[in-house]
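hey can u check if this looks right to u? its 358 residues, i copy pasted from the old doc so theres a chance i mangled smth
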Amino acid sequence: MNKKLNLLQVYRGVAAILVVLCHANHILTREFNKNTLLQIFHFGWIGVDFFFVLSGFIIFYIHQYDIGKPNKLKSFIVKRFIRIYPLYWIILASKILVSIFTISKNAIYQPGADEIIKAFLLLPQDRSILENNFIGVSWTLSYEIFFYCLFALLILFNTKIFQPIIFIWIVGIIISFLNGLPGENLILMFIFDEHNLEFVLGCLAAYIISKFRFKFKKLLIYTSIFILILSVINTKYGEYDVSGISSLIAYGIPFTFLIIGSVYLEMSSKINIPLILIYIGNASYSIYLTHGFFLNNISKFTSKLTKYNVLSNYTSDNIIALVTVIMAIVMGCFVHTYLEKPLIANLKNKVFAQIHEK
């Protein structure tokens, strides 16, 4: 049986908070009309790369022995569906309802029915549409669902048949990564996007853990952290690469090394991790989905405080910015505790009870 890896849960929380800090920088700069110390977290988008590698690792680590066993498919699909869609649908529906009552009828662009359907199903579409009308971070969930679908096919079909297809797909991504794709077909760009390789890196990490042993785990961790720090230093403000180097190389690969070293370390020695860090990791999905909404609305209130003379100095601005971020994270934790957690538990009990009855 697979050992529960608490360090990876902590990393999920770290990834979510990095994204929160990155978005908080943009939102608060807009609302405050001035920069705060949050701008040092402009690289926080790397939390997405971390999420993708972690997801690839976790899925392969848990389900590697389900590959090629069609009888395991239903359980896999149900678990993945319950994990992603119900909470997402509630948050998305809430966002759309709020938008109906707050957006002017004279708005420049209103999404069509096809775009709404794509948003609910997490089908790929233009990120600007998602950012302006739905949940901005949902573009990352489209990649997550795509990865789940591919893994489901590995479970369903004989690996000797499907493995060559996976290999050709990976080669296609590498070719696209090196030379680009002809034209700008959204679906092809999505299928052969380099982000998909980060899931593959995560799977590779889990495979290495299951097959090999590595003595220098701390060295691997320190090396990966060193490379990540170098990448952060060389990531310019407002850019989504590292001085022209793809995030796949600059972040995806060292995150893979960090995960391998951390798992080896946790498997070989007892690590005492504060429960609050594990809790934030557990709440990472709720934080990730809701932080944009909470940051936007909380910042509209806190920005007014900066207009008073007593709170107009640089230190106070940064304190208010920090409090805004903390409040958004705390509200995400409330959503996890009082909505996501009971929702998933109830759905699992009902769905799996029906499966066992059949």
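DSSP finds 14 helices and no strands in the chain.
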